[in-house]
Amino acid sequence: MKRLAILTGFTLLILLTPDHQTQAQDASFVRGDSNGDQKINITDAIFTLRHLFLGQAITCQDALDVNDDGILDLSDGIAPINYLFLGGMAPAQPFPDCGKDETEDELTCEENGRCISRGYYFVGQRSSSVGEALTRFKDHIIDNLNTLNPNDDFAVAFFDRGVLQFPSNGNPVKATEENIATSIAWMDSVFRGGGTCVGKGLETVFEFSSKSDSKSKSIFLFHNGWATCPGNGGLDYLDEVLSRVKTLNSELIPIHCLYPRIDEIPQFLIDLANQSGGSYLRFLAE
Ligand SMILES: [Ca+2]
Ligand SMILES: [Ca+2]
Ligand SMILES: [Ca+2]
Predict the structure, then answer these.
(1) Which of the ends of the chain has fewer CB neighbours closer than 10 A, N or C?
(2) How far is the CA of 45 from the centre of ligand 2 (A)?
(3) What's the CA-to-centroid distance between 69 and ligand 3, angstroms?
(4) How would residue 285 be classed by pLDDT, with cut points 50, 70 and 90?
(5) Which CATH number describes the domain made up of 2-114?
(6) pLDDT for the residue numbered 113
(7) CATH number 3.40.50.410 given to 117-282
(8) Where are the beta strands (DSSP E) in 134-263?
(9) 104 alpha carbon – ligand 3 mean position (Å)
(10) Which residues have a beta carbon within 5 Å of ligand 3, which is an ion?
(11) Which range, 15-24, 105-114, 208-217, 239-248, is most confident?
């Protein structure tokens, strides 16, 4: 019986490993950007030569394979110099923007500097008790979205008794100009509602974040620190939300809490920030 259990565990490991590896080793990169600073210059050629001859550690073999022949050799160290100074060929795709390797080879890419995707998940209270602050939170979201790279992803949710979410299919979207514009139009259609089921709002953003493979994620919560959720509310409910979030937040995504009032920041928001490694601050009119 014990042997069977061991065998089953072993089989499971074999079944799970290939998929996991593809995910971890198929990150976005810029070909030729060996050192991952999203610029192609002489330091990339030097970096590549250091890797080839001095064992410099790397995290993205594909970025060094300038000619995309699936082999890392001296020609990859020389190709950037040819391109930069002698009018030689530009690196193969993806270049100059981040992207994935489109040609099959043995090389892998775990991460390539600035191509690392960041995930931003916004969740805000839309009950009438937050008043005009809701508009400021929307502006805050827009300001943030405008700083993202197209490789980042995001999602937005507003809660009252229930939850309104963008995108409606529950999958975060890339921060392209088009997606940002669509989300802003959607936010314009969100008005104040009734009730404060903050737990539902937080569950929604964790659902979003679980579908993203971004390396670095953040959650922004806009909330007055109090809950009136039908059949559930008050301090006991907030305690339940805290422990539910602890379970859901296995990735330890920092939750940054924005409090729309001048008085003392409620303990719920402080606890939420502290248990997730996030922050809390008063979010007031200018
Ligand atoms: Ca570089
Ligand atoms: Ca090569
Ligand atoms: Ca390739």
Answers:
(1) C
(2) 13
(3) 6
(4) low
(5) 1.10.1330.10
(6) 85
(7) yes
(8) 153-159, 163-166, 173-174, 216-222, 228-229, 232-233, 255-259
(9) 5
(10) 68, 101, 103, 105
(11) 239-248
